[in-house]
User: Fold these one by one.
Assistant:
Number 1:
Amino acid sequence: MPRLTGGQALVESLKREGVGTIFGLPGIQLDWAFDALYAARDQIRVVHPRHEQAAGYMADGFARTTGQPGVFLVVPGPGVLNATAALATAYACSSPVLCITGQISSDLIGIGRGVLHEIDDQLGMLRHVTKWAARASTPGEVPIVVHEAFRQLRSGRPRPVEIEIPPDVLQMSGEVRIGQPLPPERLAGDPEKLERAATLLGRASSPLILSGGGVLTSGAWEELRALAEALEAPVVMSDNGRGALPQSHDLAQIQFTLPDLLPRADVVLAVGTKMVDFARQPIRLATGQQLIRIDADPTQLNRNTLADVPIAADAKLALGELVDRVGRHSHARTPRRAELAALKRALAEELNGAEPQASFGQALRTQLPDDAIVVSEMTQLGYWCNFGYPVEQPRSYLTSGYQGTLGAGFPIALGAQVANPDRRVVSINGDGGFMFNVQELATAVQHDIPLTVVVFDDGAFGNVRRIQEQSFAGHTIASELRNPSFARLAEVFGMRGIRAEGPSGLAAGLKQALDGSGPTLIEVPVGPMPMFLRRIRERLAEKLAAGAR
Ligand SMILES: Cc1ncc(C[n+]2csc(CCOP(=O)(O)OP(=O)(O)O)c2C)c(N)n1
Ligand SMILES: [Mg+2]
């Protein structure tokens, strides 16, 4: 067995797992890991952001657009604490992110002396925002924890995992065996239950499919499409699951049409989804409606809505099985294309009526290619795009999921662009959220990450200000923002900055950005925007309540 330092063992294990990119920010406890990365610099690209939270978000953007684990490396204590909002976001979005962090020296862990970056029970703390976390205590243990981390990332429901390695372990040499990566473990699902599901679906007169982020993480979009087409079943995609079926597909629907579609369904298949609606309320079925649920995480099957046929399985394998089996039971159905198209038209009318968001959204739609990756944010245009932007490809539209993490969008987009150098990546921001990570403009320039950043500047935490005005007799507090000129700021950082007025200005700015190379920031001054969502949601919630049992 070769003798390696813990740092070398880490890098060799990562290489063996196929890691080619790491988002990392160094510090003394990680010196021996970073020196090993120096030796491997031809095989592993190290992208260093300006704050650990960005390292975590970038790893998430990398992971969610490729389906491959995104890896980040940060110092212990304050460094890894800085990255916890990113871990929480990746957790919410079932994203395969590996957080590698340091520790204080092995002999001091748990003593409470007060040494650099010491926090009590770092592993325990991180267990709340990860699926699995472990420490390597010798160089020989390093590949063991790395390989187990990757097994966790590639098995069942992917969620972030964490490993920590004390500095003395990174520095010391020992005998190290680098193992072979284990193949992904995918749950096949109980054949009897799959047969029951196929029978129910095949015999259904009006089947409906609810598709969540699990379909994207497991890469099951072709199987989903085949099954939906075989059944003529509309597919309602969750916010985190958009792109599984192209929005232009006859059967593709988003959650806004659920209140219309759900009451008409006799058999519902929910796959890789939490089964909550646009208002995060559990999706309830009426008496007589049959529910089949497929999820790689068996605990999920007992959450929100119980199924008649619960199937613990990977979406790709289970949907593939259903495609094979359903033909034996299926029958011809009256095509519902006219009805489904009418629903989409009504929804489009509603969304297009929400100005000025709709016109800005239209500018994005017309300028971006179908394979562009769009990263949304907690901002007025982001809320609109979550429903109104037509997502045509899987793994191409990212949000911060139920975490609603303001500021996540820009660094997630940076990671997505690093992972997809040949695709256009556009990050949509408000002035408030953007400045959570404004320092990463330097990262875009230094690492030549050619994304397009749009910043809608209303001089406010606009959402907060509007709620304050409407609910508290016009009182506003802590919601006004005094900003720099974002276009000029971008130029100072060394990238192209454009100031765009109105939707047509945005369209022209996007054209200029996408025709060129290198990173571009487009600043769009805007006024307050009306909240279109609440009105639509309330109306839909009423409809849903009327349809449920
Ligand atoms: C980490 C985090 N902090 C605070 C919030 C609360 N919050 C939600 S939206 C918002 C304002 C966003 O302002 P901006 O990015 O400028 O978007 P705008 O609403 O003005 O379009 C705030 C503070 C949050 N969602 N996440
Ligand atoms: Mg704002």
Note: The mean pLDDT is 95.
Number 2:
Amino acid sequence: MKVLFIEPPKDIWFVMGEYLPPPYGIIQLGAYLEKNAEGVEVEVLDCNAEHVDWKDMEKRIESSNPDIVASSSLATCNTYVVVRTLETAKKVNSDIITVAGGQHFTATSQESLEEYPEIDVIVRGEGERTLTELVKNASNKRALPKIEGISFRHGGKIVHNPARPLIENLDELPYPGYHLVKNSISKYHFAAMAGRDVRFALIEGGRGCPHKCTFCTQWQHWQRTWRAKSPQRIADEMEFCHRNFGSEFIWLTDDNLGAGSRIGDIADEIIKRKMPDDVTWFVQARCDDILRNKEVLPKLRKSGLNWVLLGVENSELSTLESFKKGITPDDAKTAVKLLKENDIFAHAMFIIGNRKDTKESISRLREFADELDPDFAMFGILTPFPGNEVYDEAKRNGWIEDTNWSHYDMVHAIMPTETLSTKEVQEELYKCYRSFYGSWSRRFGGIFSSNEMKRRIFWYMSTRGIIDQLKALF
Ligand code: B12
Ligand code: SF4
């Protein structure tokens, strides 16, 4: 039995400049299969790293001759490239079993199986155990109804088997399967964040989130729970990636830092590993978690944490409340200040385009961003991703104007607000970037900053035509 995982050719998210990320979800699944499905051969084809286009992909599938082809969308905007990948596999050999998974296909399992005949099976939610059971039983179609966590077609109908319970202890997972992409390791990078020649790796420290923001799909995907690897295990994985694959810029994929002493303990464990100073790491965080953990920020900085993406989201308390975010605009001000005081790059994310947004409220958001003055600001448009509450509400009310999934990337406007058309929301996004990065004093300060990361980001924002690309969208 051979399983070929394919990371399809994907468009980059242009507002972050140029990058090539390792296909973390599938190398994680591949490593789990190797450990738990004896005799199964695992291969990973990363089309982006190997410069494989659609025609070459066909040849690669032919020469690999797999029994199963599996692919992940990561985000909704990649739906069609996954479907095309599985279609290509079927074209090579219609007996290949095609499997899709990840957040988008989990949330749309019924619609996706109705719409895309090239998908045989969708693995919903956590993939490791479900995929392993599927692979072990792949030659016996009669076993499918017993496999928890899958959706598939049977007798002209779409069947959704019951959900599978989650893995209790994430420390039991194997280390991420970077060996499966070892020939591409030196190519993974995030130019704007760490430089073109710095090796970039992702590491997963936890799954899910205890919060329930309306615009986020994460908490629903992980069955409304939050589980974390131990601090020791997280530091071990960082060390493993650094020592074995030369990784120097590490993105911890967690969406929140977690409660209690956890994040400080992670810092202690990383410091104990005595990795070189040029091994740095990044994490996304809630503003209130930064406030709660202010005492340990110096220790985190010492452990190599040099960049934090803060979910600031909005400048109006009423909007934050409608998002069920559970923070205040003042929390954002304090969090940015604390990060800067600790020499940690403060990156803020804002969301525009909620139902009550007007030209005036978005203008106030721009003023707030200006006053907050993070080292780097990113603005996104509220997007009805299948699996978030915004999607359910928007669908119920008929607000969705654009049903092309490839536009669901928080850069394209998908729906209007009560007072702004979809096109006007798009224009407001451009104005946000132009107002933040167009200011001469900020631009000058950024390009000539003593902080290397800030210089790099401002250089990217001013030379890569990102603002022009945003203008071309309306
Ligand atoms: C790192 C990251 C990125 C990185 C790159 C990652 C990469 N490898 O390409 C960058 C910065 C480039 C990025 C960009 C974007 N991202 Co992003 N990103 C993440 C993040 C933080 C981690 C992803 C990860 O590796 N998770 C760990 C792995 C193990 O989890 P997983 O992929 O879900 O896989 C598990 C299961 O879902 C399942 N599974 C998944 N796929 C498959 C496939 C098969 C066959 C099977 C069997 C099972 C299976 O099994 C896996 C193990 O259990 C997630 C949030 C998160 N914590 O997951 C957001 C997230 C995936 N991103 C998101 C979004 C929206 C985007 C962007 C559109 C921009 C944005 N606004 O952030 C762009 C899209 C770019 C593009 N064209 O692909 C959303 C997706 C929402 C959605 N439904 O679309 C997420 C969930 C963030 C959020 N909280 O909303 N992202
Ligand atoms: S936005 Fe962040 S804090 Fe809110 S539910 Fe999603 S992951 Fe959790």
Note: The chain has a mean pLDDT of 96.
